[in-house]
Design brief:
Layout: H1 15-33, H2 39-48, H3 53-84, H4 91-112, H5 117-130, H6 136-160, H7 163-182
Length: about 180
């Protein structure tokens, strides 16, 4: 069982923390300026920012492919639901469809991207139980788009600002300041 609170904990704000915070902030600012809700794009950034590109691709891929599979599956399941209950309102039937959809989600994720089960399940549940009938398709598609944008931003930031490049830049700046103080 993990120790709580950790005895070895030391407060540390590292490069990954800074990249994550700045990327999320920039995405949120852009989204606010264009009048869109930044929540899912920012979640995509936070999931997608890894310690290196390999970690970012794994974590961001989990979020992106899970959201893609769960979002598209939720559209199909909601469509089936509306065939039987066009006005909605029968949540027990929707719960039964969720059970079947969860099996399908897990199988699809096992085939395409195993780490996508959890984020795919989140999107599936949100669309099925929290989205109005009139907007379930656009809602699901927007979640996929926003997540993709967030993950792509995280991947780009991690690609262009890897730790090695930033440390080298920082050391160079420190060297310049040391040289300048000797003059």
């Amino acid at each position: 069982m993990p120790e709580f609170p950790r005895k070895d904990f030391q407060l540390h704000v590292g490069w990954r923390t800074i990249k994550t915070a700045v990327s999320a902030m920039l995405v949120a600012i852009v989204y606010c300026l264009i009048g869109r809700n930044p929540a899912f794009a920012c979640i995509g950034v936070i999931f997608g920012m890894g310690v290196d590109m390999r970690d970012s691709i794994q974590n961001g891929g989990n979020r992106l492919f899970g959201t893609l599979i769960g979002g598209l599956l939720s559209i199909g399941v909601f469509w089936v639901y509306l065939l039987f209950y066009p006005q909605g309102g029968h949540t027990v039937f929707l719960a039964v469809l969720l059970g079947a959809a969860t099996v399908i989600l897990i199988l699809l994720c096992q085939y395409f991207w195993p780490g996508g089960v959890q984020p795919g399940g989140v999107v599936l549940c949100i669309v099925l139980f929290s989205t109005p009938i009139e907007s379930y398709v656009s809602y699901a598609l927007n979640r996929i788009l926003d997540t993709a944008i967030g993950v792509i931003v995280a991947l780009l930031v991690n690609y262009f600002l890897p730790r090695a490049r930033v440390v080298a830049f920082w050391e160079g700046l420190k060297g310049l300041f040391r040289m300048g103080s000797k003059v």
